[in-house]
């Protein structure tokens, strides 16, 4: 009972995929920022993140 996706739908999905991925990443970073603001992420854990990720989190928190 295999189901198929119409070619037209694949084209739509390919077009919106980058947008959906960006929204997902924004939500994950926002959730991580919320966890940091509640003191659930320790400094050593934060420092283990990639500098680009740390910068994105700091930006969301309004810090430099």
Q: Could you walk me through the main structural features you see in this protein, from its secondary elements to its overall organization?
A:
With 64 residues, this protein is mainly alpha-helical. The chain has one domain. The protein is built from 3 helices and no strands. The protein has helices at 7-37, 43-47, 51-61. Helix 1 packs across helix 3. The longest helix is centred in the middle third of the chain and has 31 residues, at 7-37. It is elongated. The termini are far apart. The model has no long low-confidence stretch (mean pLDDT 87).
Blueprint of the fold:
Layout (H helix, E strand, L loop, with lengths): L6 H31 L5 H5 L3 H11 L3
Task: Write a concise synopsis of the structure shown.
The chain has one domain (14-61). The protein contains 3 helices and no strands. It has helices spanning 7-37, 43-47, 51-61.
